[in-house]
Structure formats: structure tokens, C-alpha cells
């Protein structure tokens, strides 16, 4: 008998003995008068066991079968579903195994088998959360996460993702071998084609997003010079997107928490789909993004979107999301790039190509697919490579007497003869030298 049931028995017994009234018993037990009357009737008929619930000790009618519980436990410990949290595992059971159970049921089965949770739950830290933006497209957070997304089936790779601050939706994502400028160009292009141009982008202070020479001296500031931009920063400037750089990871916590969720879920999802390469991972990425947005996205405060579609009069995205280089135009309207000579291709523009003065600093834009364009006064002109003339090397002339031959004395030269050779000395001289004195 539990403490609660014992309390009910004592109070109703005092009512039976006439020590209190029925209304007082109902008030002490916080029950209705009709309920205490039922308890009194059962105690009079059955004694102390009348206050015990009739289902106590019985298996609930809606309880899972032991076979189903054992099946869930085996699947939880299998290689197919390893490292799944309780909520995600319950979703996968319903999707792939046809077993409809709640996350709390999965948790009870796991605890009964003495299996520890995937991640230790720590008490939440007190912090003041930043309010979401009211409209979608007002702020988009970008970042990359280098991780073993395919476990041991492939090398570690980087997931570049962009999340909308107002809705928590993933607006773009791409897998790359590493975090690089080209990857963020592809990420931005994917976002613009799907949603539009956002008002601002929030990122960290990686060298992809800022120039290494962004700190100006006092003289440069007084002269009114602007900070130099990186390749990605120049593209955002042309698109009219405000670029905000965070100084701490906590400042862009929404994208950081997104990567925690994706590392917890997408590793298992990629394993279940049999993905073994970065190409296959990018192929199934739209399906993963759709499932994530359906489960975690929220509705914005203002239903109007702040994303702006790309206008027709704006340049092609290939000429905005590209690499920019500065070169000096030669006298023959040619320039040098990557050890090659280029000239403006005929028919690159319908209008007449304006004359460009020699020695002018012009901008060369290189697209992601390797095409080159000369950017002058807001227009792009395609460049073509021109072969360099092959020059014949002039024969080398040698000055007379510049090369001296080594001197070799003759065999009978005096220098080759020793100063004194006993074999060539006269016989008298040798005898005089050997005679006794």
C-alpha cells in the first residue's frame, strides 16, 4: 500500500468511526464528496484493500508486447541505427520499420536495458536570447562545419550551410572537400536561385569573408580610403547585401546549434541511404534539407518575405560570384594573365567596344568554370587567348680570343727533363764519386 492509499484509508476510517464528517474527509483528501463515498463503500466491503487501485500489478492493455520491445532494443544496438538519439530513433522506426512508438517509450526501453544516452544532458545555462528577425530574408547566417559526415566511408568534408534567422529554415547547403571561397560562391548562388537576395548575411571573421589588410592606418582613414574587401565581400557588395561579421561563435548561435542538430541526425541519414562519396551526399542533400525544414522550421512574425529576386538588368550571377583580378592594359589592347596573353574577343558585346586607353588598370573577372572577362565601366567583355609569336633565338657570337686553349708542353721540352739524372752522367764522374779518398 502506498503512502497516498494509506492516507485515504486513515481519513475514511475516521469518518466511519464518526470522528469527522464526509465533507471534512473530502476536503482533507482533496476529493469530491461522491468519491469519498465510493471509498467508504469499498472499505466497508473489502477492508484495507478497498483503497488499492484495481489495476495495480496488472499489465496495461495498451502496453507493448515483449517481442516488440526486444525488437526495438535490437535495432537500437544495431550498426544501422547506432548513435541515434531517442527522438530521431523513434522517427526512423516509424519511417523504415513501421513501428509507431513515442520517444518516451524508446527512452524507457533504453533505460530498462541500462544503456546510456548518446549525449549527457546538462542543465541549461541562463542567457538572454536574441529575438528572431520578423521577416524571412532580413538576416541569413552562414558558416561551415568540417566533420566526418560519412564516418569511415570517406575522408572528412565540410558542410557549408545558410540558415534564415526568422524561420530557422535551411535556405542553402553544399558539401565541399574544405571550406573555401568557391564553396561560399556556390552556396550564395543556390540561396539566390531558391529564395532571392537577402538583406544581410551574418558570418564569422574567417579570411574568406575579410581581407588580411582590412585595418587602415590613421593616414589612410584621414585620406578617406575604404577598407579592402575579400573576393566574397566584393560579390556581396555588388549584390547589395550587408555583411556583418561576428566576433564570437555565441553571436551566431543559430547556425552553431544547427550544425549540432545536423551532426546528430544527418550522419545516420547518410548511412541509411548508403552514401559513400561527396557527390552522392550532394545529390541527396535537397531531400535532407526538406525533411529538416519540415520538422524544425517556424513561422515568421511577419508573413511578408524580405528576399528580393534577382532583377533582369543586373549582371549574370556568373560575373558577380567570381574571382576578380587587376591588370594593366597594354598598348595593343592586350593583357597578361596567368602567363598567357589575352585580347577582347570579337562579338563579345552587341554594342561597340569602347576604346580603352593604354596603361589603364582594368578588372579581369574569372568565373568558376574558368572563363575570363574584362570588366570596364559596368560591362563585361569576353577575353580570348592569343598565341605568342615564336621568336627565333639569335646565334650566339663569340669574341675572338675569348676562349683560350690550354697549353701543353712538348715531350722534349726542358721542363719535362729532371735537373740531374744519374743514368745520363759520364762514367768518369760516377767513378770519382765511388773511389775512396
UniProtKB/TrEMBL annotation:
Record GO biological process: DNA integration
Q: Where is this region: Disordered?
A: 386-437
* Highest taxon in the source lineage: Bacteria
Start and end of every Integrase catalytic domain?
A: 130-317
SUPFAM superfamilies listed in its UniProt record:
Homeodomain-like, Ribonuclease H-like
Stored PANTHER family = INTEGRASE PROTEIN, TRANSPOSASE RV3428C-RELATED
Q: What is this protein called?
A: ISNCY family transposase
Q: Which organism is it from?
A: Caldalkalibacillus thermarum (strain TA2.A1)
Source taxonomy lineage?
A: Bacteria, Bacillati, Bacillota, Bacilli, Bacillales
Amino acid at each position: 500500500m502506498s503512502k497516498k492509499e494509506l492516507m485515504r484509508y486513515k481519513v475514511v476510517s475516521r469518518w466511519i468511526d464518526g470522528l469527522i464528517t464526509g465533507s471534512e474527509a473530502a476536503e482533507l483528501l482533496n476529493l469530491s464528496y461522491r468519491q469519498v463515498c465510493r471509498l467508504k463503500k469499498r472499505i466497508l466491503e473489502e477492508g484495507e484493500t478497498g483503497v488499492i487501485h484495481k489495476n495495480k500489478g496488472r499489465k496495461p492493455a495498451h502496453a507493448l508486447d515483449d517481442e516488440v520491445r526486444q525488437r526495438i532494443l535490437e535495432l537500437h544496438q544495431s550498426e544501422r541505427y547506432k548513435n541515434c538519439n531517442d527522438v530521431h530513433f523513434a522517427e526512423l522506426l516509424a519511417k523504415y520499420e513501421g513501428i509507431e512508438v513515442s520517444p518516451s517509450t524508446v527512452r524507457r526501453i533504453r533505460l530498462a536495458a541500462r544503456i546510456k544516452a548518446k549525449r549527457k544532458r546538462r542543465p541549461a545555462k541562463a542567457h538572454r536570447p536574441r529575438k528572431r528577425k520578423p521577416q524571412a530574408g532580413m538576416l541569413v547566417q552562414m558558416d561551415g562545419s568540417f566533420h566526418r559526415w560519412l564516418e569511415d566511408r570517406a575522408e572528412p568534408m565540410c558542410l557549408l550551410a545558410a540558415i534564415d534567422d526568422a524561420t530557422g529554415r535551411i535556405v542553402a547547403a553544399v558539401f565541399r572537400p574544405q571550406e573555401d571561397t568557391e564553396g561560399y560562391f556556390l552556396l550564395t548562388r543556390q540561396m539566390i536561385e531558391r529564395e532571392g537576395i537577402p538583406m544581410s548575411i551574418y558570418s564569422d571573421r574567417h579570411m574568406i569573408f575579410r581581407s588580411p589588410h582590412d585595418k587602415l592606418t590613421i593616414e589612410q582613414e584621414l585620406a578617406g580610403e575604404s577598407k579592402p574587401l575579400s573576393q566574397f565581400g566584393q560579390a556581396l557588395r555588388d549584390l547589395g547585401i550587408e555583411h556583418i561579421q561576428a566576433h564570437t561563435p555565441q553571436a551566431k548561435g543559430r547556425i552553431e546549434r544547427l550544425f549540432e542538430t545536423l551532426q546528430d541526425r544527418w550522419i545516420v541519414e547518410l548511412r541509411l541511404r548508403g552514401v559513400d562519396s561527396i557527390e552522392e551526399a550532394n545529390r541527396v542533400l535537397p531531400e535532407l534539407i526538406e525533411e529538416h525544414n519540415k520538422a524544425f522550421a517556424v513561422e515568421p512574425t511577419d508573413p511578408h518575405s524580405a528576399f528580393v529576386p534577382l532583377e533582369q538588368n543586373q549582371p549574370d550571377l556568373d560575373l558577380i560570384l567570381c574571382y576578380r583580378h587587376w591588370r594593366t592594359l597594354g598598348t595593343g589592347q592586350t593583357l597578361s594573365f596567368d602567363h598567357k596573353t589575352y585580347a577582347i574577343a570579337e562579338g563579345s558585346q552587341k554594342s561597340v567596344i569602347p576604346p580603352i586607353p593604354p596603361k589603364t588598370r582594368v578588372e579581369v573577372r574569372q568565373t568558376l568554370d574558368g572563363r575570363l572577362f574584362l570588366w570596364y565601366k559596368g560591362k563585361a567583355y569576353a577575353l580570348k587567348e592569343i598565341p605568342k609569336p615564336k621568336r627565333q633565338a639569335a646565334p650566339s657570337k663569340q669574341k675572338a680570343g675569348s676562349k683560350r686553349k690550354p697549353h701543353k708542353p712538348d715531350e722534349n721540352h726542358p721542363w719535362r727533363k729532371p735537373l740531374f739524372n744519374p743514368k745520363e752522367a759520364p762514367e768518369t764522374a760516377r767513378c770519382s764519386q765511388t773511389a775512396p779518398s
